[in-house]
């Protein structure tokens, strides 16, 4: 997929707007258009993977309103192409822990640190590994 900055819409350039082209396509850029980050790959997530996402601007996704700064996770297994209003913050994997292994997890909102021992654990959107 590609994200086109300042797309040409209805005979004029839409400055500050973005549009997305998904899949195989052959096209020329109009004068003033440019690609945001070149050709990008679709995110393919397995069962133990997830993407940490942040909304850059207000939009609705599957009936859920997302406001700028909102963070959420997209869990696998699935293929994911982020809309132009979303940025991918991190690519996360589940952390497998044996019965005598553990990690410290910090909640970013409250600052509370807790330990997780002996289970496979996927960090939540508001959590980070604490060292």
What does this structure look like?
There is one protein chain. This protein has 131 residues and is an all-beta fold. It has no helices and 15 strands. It is elongated.
| Estimated share of beta-strand residues | over 45%
End-to-end Cα distance, whole Å, is: 37 Å
Mean pLDDT over the residues: 92
**Which consecutive residue ranges, at least 5 long each, have pLDDT under 50?**
none
With strands numbered from the N-terminus, the spatial order across the biggest sheet is: 4-1-5
- The Cα radius of gyration reads 19 Å
Task: Characterize the main sheet.
Answer: 3 strands, antiparallel
Enumerate how many helices there are, as a single number: 0
> How many β strands by DSSP?
15
How are helices and strands ordered from N to C?
Answer: EEEEEEEEEEEEEEE
Fraction in helix? under 10%
Shape: elongated
Structural class: mainly beta
Write the layout of secondary structure elements.
Elements: E1 2-5, E2 8-9, E3 12-13, E4 18-21, E5 34-35, E6 43-45, E7 49-55, E8 59-61, E9 64-66, E10 71-75, E11 78-80, E12 86-93, E13 102-107, E14 113-117, E15 127-129
Antiparallel strand pairs: 1-4, 1-5, 2-3, 6-11, 7-10, 7-12, 8-9, 13-14, 13-15
């Amino acid at each position: 997929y590609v994200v086109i900055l300042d797309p040409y819409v209805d005979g004029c350039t839409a400055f500050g707007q973005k549009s997305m082209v998904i899949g195989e396509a052959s096209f020329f850029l109009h004068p003033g258009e440019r690609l945001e980050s070149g050709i990008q790959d679709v995110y393919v997530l397995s069962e133990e993977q997830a993407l940490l996402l942040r909304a850059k601007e207000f939009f609705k996704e599957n009936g859920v309103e997302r406001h700028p700064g909102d963070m959420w996770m997209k869990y696998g297994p699935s293929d994911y192409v982020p809309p132009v209003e979303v940025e991918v913050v991190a690519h996360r994997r589940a952390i497998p822990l044996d019965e005598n292994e553990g990690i410290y997890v910090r909640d970013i909102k409250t600052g509370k640190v807790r330990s997780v021992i002996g289970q496979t654990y996927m960090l939540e959107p508001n959590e980070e590994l604490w060292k």
